[in-house]
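Late entry, fe (ii) ion complex.
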Amino acid sequence: MRTIVHLSDLHFGRVDEALLAPLRELVERLAPDVVVVSGDLTQRAKSEQFEAARAWLDTLPGPQIIVPGNHDISLYNVFRRFVKPLERYQRYITDDLDPIHVDDEIAVLGINTARSLTFKDGRVNEEQVAKIREELSGLDPSITRIVVTHHPFDLPKTHDEDDLVDRAPMAMAAFAECGVDLLLAGHLHVSHANSTEERYPISEYAALVIQAGTATSTRGRGEVNSFNVIRVEPARVEVDRYGWDVLSQTFSLITTEVFMRSANVWAAHNDGLLAAGI
Ligand SMILES: [Fe+2]
Ligand SMILES: [Fe+2]
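Prediction complete; structure with ligand written out below:
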């Protein structure tokens, strides 16, 4: 089994400072095999915001798979936005825009979906999908394949389809061929986990989409600050959602969802949603 701590939408520049130390301590206690950060590390892509994000990430365990979000591209500075969109992200966070971690049980691959031409939408392109295909082609079939983006491949029913990553059907067809199991994302500041079966009907294939809320931003969009702990086994995935509890000033377990794989189809386990402590 592998344990992944999945954080998203940190938004340094607009973080609730009281959460940083408790979150760091809990992540350390959870002893993850990999820490994933699915984008929007900053609020406005400013150097001091990236610097603060870098300093905090340095206190977390590794390895870390990090991808940028739309907020990590300068919004108003036209030169930065179009000529050097991810310069500061690459300087402070990581130079690697296609990060990858592979061990005996999991492969975790990041893709940058943030684009200069659009303010908040994201997109995946054929080159990125081809790269994933290539990286995954040589791997042992027993390894669970996990792709990390900022923009999501699925949404809660209440959300507008505009928030989906562009060219998702093209990417999903390729993911079906190379057996991608999990798709981790953020962006909406809303937690969500679901099989891709409904949105992308592909014969004998369904992945699992897992979205994290915002771990530390003050803009929670109706949800408390939260993050996911994902426990990965070859045919079973458990998603624990931790949420900030104002009274105790700690993150505590809110829900656990269980998903099972049968052949190449991931689906919610019958009594998958369990309230914590029941
Ligand atoms: Fe965000
Ligand atoms: Fe975003």
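The first strand starts at residue 2 and ends at 7. Will revisit in the morning.
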